[in-house]
């Protein structure tokens, strides 16, 4: 089981940041909440700070645990920890994704998300 963290980043207008995995990556073409693998001895929050700096060149502040979901893909099982976060600074520059969007929660069902992220989409949509 691989532990992974995902950030549900909200902007000042209440929109959520989603990103599409680029070609050549597992789950290519699917949308996700950005994040990455948690390294040994690293907290989920620190993982998210590191990953968003590496993958998008932005600084975020995870501020609240959202949920956890376990998912078995064909070759790997992951435990995905989601945290609500706010954007502190930076302009998004993609390295691991080919597109990003700021969307309203009500628009999420229009996007095809990676399977491990889908329970979080449903939870967010249930809150509106």
| Low-confidence runs | none
Tell me the strand percentage band: 35-45%
Helical residue percent? Answer: 10-25%
Distance between the termini: 32 Å
Number of strand segments = 7
Strand line-up across the major sheet: 4-1-6-5
Largest sheet geometry: 4 strands, mixed
Question: What is the helix tally?
Answer: 2
Task: Describe what this molecule looks like in 3D.
This protein has 128 residues and is an alpha+beta fold. The chain has helices at residues 44-56, 118-126; strands spanning 2-10, 16-21, 31-32, 35-37, 59-72, 77-89, 97-103. The strands form two sheets. It has a four-stranded mixed beta sheet with strand order 4-1-6-5, with helices on one face. It has a three-stranded antiparallel beta sheet with strand order 3-2-7, with no helix packed on it. β5 and β6 form a beta hairpin. The longest helix is centred in the middle third of the chain and has 13 residues, at 44-56. The protein starts with a strand and ends with a helix.
Question: Descriptors for this entry?
Answer:
128 residues, alpha+beta, four-stranded mixed sheet, three-stranded antiparallel sheet, 2 helices, 7 strands, 42% strand, DNA damage
Characterize this entry briefly.
By secondary structure, the protein is of the alpha+beta class.
Topology:
Layout: E1 2-10, E2 16-21, E3 31-32, E4 35-37, H1 44-56, E5 59-72, E6 77-89, E7 97-103, H2 118-126
Parallel strand pairs: 1-6
Antiparallel strand pairs: 1-4, 2-3, 2-7, 5-6
Domain Nudix hydrolase: 1-126
Cofactor: Mg(2+)
Pfam family, one: NUDIX
């Amino acid at each position: 089981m691989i532990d992974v963290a995902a950030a549900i980043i909200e902007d000042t207008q209440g929109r959520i940041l989603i990103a599409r995995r680029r070609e050549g990556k597992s789950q290519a073409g699917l949308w996700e909440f950005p994040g990455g693998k948690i390294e040994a001895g690293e907290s989920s929050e620190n993982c998210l700070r590191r990953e968003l700096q590496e993958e998008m060149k932005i600084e975020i502040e995870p501020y609240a645990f959202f949920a956890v979901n376990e998912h078995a893909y064909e070759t790997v099982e992951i435990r995905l920890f989601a945290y609500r976060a706010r954007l502190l600074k930076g302009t998004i520059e993609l390295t691991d994704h080919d597109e990003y969007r700021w969307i309203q929660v009500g628009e999420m069902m229009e996007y095809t998300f990676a399977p491990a992220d889908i329970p979080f989409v449903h939870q967010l949509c249930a809150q509106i």
